[in-house]
Amino acid sequence: MTAVVEFHGLSKSFGDVSAVDEVSAAARPGEVTALLGPNGAGKSTTLRMLLGLVEPDKGTATFAGRRYDELPDPIRQVGAVLEASGYHPGRTAFDHLRILTVASRLPREAPERVLAECGLSADGGRRVGSFSLGMRQRLGIAAAMLGDPKVLVLDEPTNGLDPPGVRWLRGYLRRLADEGRTVLLSSHALTEVELIADHVLVMAGGRLLRSSSLAALRAEAGVGSWVRTPDPDRLAHALDAAGHTHHRTDGHLAVDATPEQVGELAALHRIVLHGLEGTADLEKAFFRLTRDPHSPMERPLSAEGVLS
Questions:
Q1: Phi and psi (nearest 5°) for 97?
Q2: 291, pLDDT greater than 70
Q3: Strand, helix or coil for residue 104
Q4: pTM of the model
Q5: At residue 110, what are phi and psi to the nearest 5 degrees?
């Protein structure tokens, strides 16, 4: 099976609420694809339709052209973690995985393999009821990888993970993608997504707003800086001489240059800076797309890609 995940015109309503509206997109092998959006954007419903847990009103969600319920041996083809639950608290982590292994007719060494991959080898004999939320997240990923699938689907996988756990997850998912697998995850943790994603699908209000490489989305935000200085006239003159466009607003300068370029120019001319902020990041592009009135972006990007 090729590992392409595709959505075609996927739609779902619950009563009068449109949860997902005509979503068409793809996640491809060798990439980490992040489904981004605020709470209520339709991310989880989209993944649940992909995994056959929710019936779409219209459209399809497929793995290489087949719905999940049409896959002949799904545990060997698709791994999924939607929430860190479904464990018997009195059962050990190893026994939990062993039962899944026997039921799925997988190789008997599979539990040891995935426990090692997920950093749980030393905890395999512990009862799951004593696990932290982060450890249960790792156990869920271990269970999803028992069949060594080509596709991994995760819903908010960093929930409950401590910083070392988040770093482990980032490296693990990157390795899976580099092996040629398809990794599809939902998240609203934009900082983490910037560190791992190759492709992003931005959702809001049930609609897909953008399907783009992470690099293209960053470029769309514009490469610029937001500068505060007690000597704006001198800095403006230096910027003009260096060929950088800029404009002044609310005591700040919005500049079409990177923070490094602005900082070096200010140092060269001995100009004091009180603030220097880069504007080409995923967060600003995300809030620009979703237009969330409660977002922390108080200074929107202009069409030229600088803060206005």
A1: -70, -35
A2: no
A3: coil
A4: 0.76
A5: -60, -45
